[in-house]
Amino acid sequence: MTRLHLKPIEQQVIVITGASSGIGLATAHRAALAGACVFLIARNEEALAAIAQEIQSRGGMAGHAAADVGDPDAVAAAADAAIARFGRIDTWVNNAGVAIYAPLVETPFDEHERLFRTNYFGVVNGALAALPHLQKQGGALITIGSIVSDLQTPIMGAYAASKHAAKGFIDSLRAELTAADAPVSVTLIKPSGIDTPIAQHAANHLPGEAMIPPPVYDPELVAEAVLHAAIHPQREITVGGIGRAGELIGQHVPGLVDRLSGLITPVLDDQDQPRTESNNLFEPTRDGEIRSGRQAGRRFSVYGSAGRHPVAIAALGGLATLGLYLTLRRPPADQA
Known about the structure:
It is a single chain. This protein is an alpha/beta fold. It has a single domain (9-329), classed as 3-Layer(aba) Sandwich (Rossmann fold). The chain has helices at residues 22-33, 45-57, 72-86, 109-119, 121-137, 157-179, 198-201, 219-231, 241-252, 254-264, 302-307, 310-329; strands at 13-17, 37-42, 61-66, 91-94, 100-101, 139-144, 184-191, 193-194, 203-204, 208-210, 216-217, 236-239, 269-274. The strands form four sheets. Strands 3-2-1-4-6-7-12 form a seven-stranded parallel sheet, sandwiched between helices. A two-stranded parallel ribbon has the order 5-9. The longest helix is centred in the middle third of the chain and has 23 residues, at 157-179.
C-alpha cells in the first residue's frame, strides 16, 4: 500500500456516504475547504441540497444524490451520478451508519436487520460501486468503523456486531485487492465515541435519552483522519487515545471488559432527559448538524495525531501494551 501514489486533496473527487450529518458532514466541509470536489450521498435529499449549496456558496465544488446505502442499485446509481458530475472518483468514504440502544435479547428483529442493511451492507454496496472506478486510475476506499469493530459493548451490541462484520469484509477485501495488485488503498478508520447526533438519531429502547459512550471526541478529528487516509495509504487509524486503550484492554483481558460492562450501561442512559421517540433507522430524520449539542467533544488527541504516522503508532502501541502488561502482572498491594 505504501507504494501507491494518491493525489493531493485539492486534485481529488471525494464521495462521502452519510454526508448529511455528523462525521460525513464534517468531512465534506473539510475536504471542500481543502479544495476537493465533494459528492454527497444520504437519504435526505433536502438536507443534501442545502449542504451542497452551502459548500458552493463558500467557493467549493459539490454535488449530491439521494440514496439509501442499503440498496445496491441506488448506491450504484449515485456512483454514476458522481461520475457524471465530476468525471471520476478518487476517494470513496463509506460513512453512513445507524444505531440501536437496547439489550441484544430485547432488540426487535426488524430493527436489527435494518441496522445491518445500513452498517454492513452499506459498506459492501459502497465498495462494490466504487471499486470499478477506483481500479481504473487508482484511489482510496475508506470505511468508518469504530473501536467496537474490535471490542464488545453492552446495550449497543447490534451496532458493535455490524462494525465487526464491516471490519471483516474490509480486511478480506484488502487482502484480495493486494493479492491482485490493484491500485486501491483500503483504510479502516476506528473512531472512539464521537460527538455526533448518532445517539439522538438512534432507535432507543432505554428509559432516558441515549448518550454517546465516553470519552467523547470532536468529529473534526475523524474528518482529519479521513483526509489523511485519502492521500497517505494506511491500513487502520484509531481516533482517540482512550479508545485505543480500550481496544488493548479488550484484546488482552476481554473477561475484565465483560465484568465491567454493567458500569457502562448507566453512562449510555441519561434518565434525567426524556427519550427521543423518532429515529432514522428506516427513514431519514432531522439532518444538517455535525455535533449533538449534548456532549462536548475533545478537540485534540495525541494518539490520533501520532497515529497517522506508522513509526509513531508502533511506538505508542508498544508503550501502551507494555504499560498494560506491567499493570496486570503487578501483585496486589497486600502481596507486594
